[in-house]
Amino acid sequence: MTGAIQEEEPAGWNPEASGTRVRLRDNPGRQGTTTGRVKKAGTFLLVEVDFGPNEKQYKRYELLEPIAEEAQIFDLLEGGSFGGPSDLRRVLTFEKIKGELTNVFYSMEASNTDFYPHQFKPVMRLSNPRSAGC
Fold first, then answer.
1. Is 43 helix (H, G, I), strand (E, B) or coil?
2. What 3-state DSSP class applies to 46?
3. Each residue of 37-80: pLDDT tens digit?
4. CA–CA gap between residue 130 and residue 120 (Å, rounded)
5. How many Å apart are CA 48 and CA 15, to the nearest integer?
6. Distance CA 131, CA 119 (A)
7. Would you say residue 125 has pLDDT above 80?
């Protein structure tokens, strides 16, 4: 089977090598490591990728690309490696939440997060302990 794999390696990486860090071409934010297991499904070569705890999936070899070691942000932009809309939403929400407390209150309306009064009761108890009956 190794001979057949060698013929289908236009990208230049060995799918039978375990521990190779790869990502999905259409979703660069989805990264994992190869396990070294491969199988054929018709004309497609499938490579098993470990995406995390209890999440091993077979993905088509053509849909995977190896991750270059320590790529700089400008190199990724030049190569056209962008995430999807969900990656952008996740990063923006993280940046809003990690800011100062006043910035969080100003940016509450900028996301699709619903805030309800019962979520702030523990904060009110901490800020005003006399009203809690202490």
1. coil
2. strand
3. 999 999 999 999 999 888 999 999 999 989 877 667 777 778 77
4. 16
5. 9
6. 17
7. no
The answer to whether the beta carbons of residues 8 and 61 sit under 8 Å apart is yes
pTM as predicted: 0.51
Residue 45: how many other CB atoms lie within 10 Å = 20
Amino acid identity, residue 36? G
Provide CB contacts within 8 A for 20, sequence distance 6+: 13, 14, 33, 34, 66
Please give the order of strands across the beta sheet that includes 64-66: 56-60, 44-50, 27-41, 21-24, 64-66
Residue 106 CB-half CA count within 13 A = 7
Question: What pLDDT is stored for residue 39 in this prediction?
Answer: 94
DSSP string covering 59-97: EEGGGEEEPPTT--HHHHHHHT----HHHHHHHHHHHHH
| Whether pLDDT at 4 is above 50 | no
| Alpha-carbon gap, residue 62 to 24, rounded angstroms | 9
